[in-house]
Amino acid sequence: MTTTTRRKVGIAGAIVGAASAGVAAAALAKRYAVGRMRLRPDAEASERFGELRGRDRTLITSDSTALHVELDGPEDAPLTIVFCHGYCLSLESWHYQRRDLRDSYRMVLWDQRSHGRSQRASAEDSTIDRLGDDLAEVIDRFVPGPCVLVGHSMGGMTIMALADRHPELFGDKIRAVSLIATSAGKLAELTLGLPALLSKVVHKIAPPTISMLGKRGSFVDKTRHAGSDIAFLMTRLMGFGDSKNVSPTLVDFAETMIRATPTEVFADFYPALMNHDKLAALHVLDPVPTAILVGDKDWLTPPEHSKAIAAALPKAQLTEVPDTSHLIQLERPGEVNDALRDLIKRVEL
């Protein structure tokens, strides 16, 4: 081996060694950070996440997809609350609302197609409009009287799709609506808290990258190890922002729901979310009381999106919750539940 070759090998070895040391140091720092978070006092350590159960039902939709539905609360209640969960979540994301409202109100909670315990749908049928049709069928089957619709994130978009495709339901059947941390459109313009230039790059590479991951979904899912530090940190950051007091048990609960959503489902719904635009349908909600809630630190559906919805609905009530991120119904259940109670009082029979 020549002197020049030995020098190149030595330099390459040094680079690899430095890179390996950097990766090891980053992994150690990440593990240390997660360890410190888990050692903090945890007020939710004994919370019964995922243990609340109702009366199980199955709805076979008009396109032959089996949806998992749970009924809870008193059957003879004059008003029903229908909860629509968000992207990569499940009906379990309404844990605190279900826990605190089930004694007083009849509730319908359902897993949107391809989520939770509902049947997987094809990519072609993974659209926001189809979710709106699903919601119409859930209401027709399981809501005997008037109801209040509550939607978080993609669930709010589902309600907007319902308004677009079934406007006749709003007023007599649907007496009020709550739109929580959601958007009427332009999700493809989100900065995700990144500098403008970096955000443009992310949006450019995201669609083909997510499409590629979807095509290799089975392989990718095998690498999504349960309880990984990276998954914990990502869920904490994107779902709960930079809150210093969020419960590690709560973060684990949210991460479990996200991890249970197959990568193919994540990829199938991504184009529908990015192309979502229902601003023109919001006028259908104007005759019914509408409560809009958003966290001021929400990176996924920022306050500007809720303000745009409120601008289209002059009679709606907009609440911006301070120091709160995207999973507001889990992070600030007291504020969300109080807002829902106030909304329900406006339409109670």
UniProtKB/TrEMBL annotation:
Keyword Chaperone: no
InterPro entries from the UniProt entry: AB_hydrolase_1, Carboxylesterase_BioH
Highest taxon, organism lineage: Bacteria
Metal-binding in keyword set: no
Residues in AB hydrolase-1 domain copies: 80-333
A single MF term (Gene Ontology): hydrolase activity
UniProtKB keywords: Hydrolase
Name this polypeptide is given: Alpha/beta fold hydrolase
